[in-house]
Amino acid sequence: AEFEAAAEEVKQLTRTPSDQEMLEIYALYKQATVGDVNTERPGFMDFKGKAKWDAWSGKKGTSQDDARTQYIKLVAELKTKYC
């Protein structure tokens, strides 16, 4: 419930976090909901896709529970910074 609430709250930030913060949010969300990266790395010209894949891949080995906890904490920090 707390994780799902954080996932909704991040959509309601009044300002957009930095690209690096957005990648961290994405990576933690994917790790929490899917687990370790399970897709091929995007092709050479897909810069955004590669950045997202690399961020998620960087979380490899993190348990889904730990990723949820980190995600909730990060969203709380972003709410104080961007709301």
Automatic annotation (TrEMBL):
Pfam families recorded: ACBP (PF00887)
GO biological process: fatty acid metabolic process
Domain annotation ACB: ranges: 1-83
GO molecular function terms attached to this record: fatty-acyl-CoA binding
Keywords of the record: Lipid-binding
InterPro entries hit by this protein: Acyl-CoA-binding_prot_CS (IPR022408), Acyl-CoA-binding_protein (IPR000582), Acyl-CoA-binding_sf (IPR035984), FERM/acyl-CoA-bd_prot_sf (IPR014352)
Family designation: Belongs to the ACBP family.
Protein name in UniProt: ACB domain-containing protein
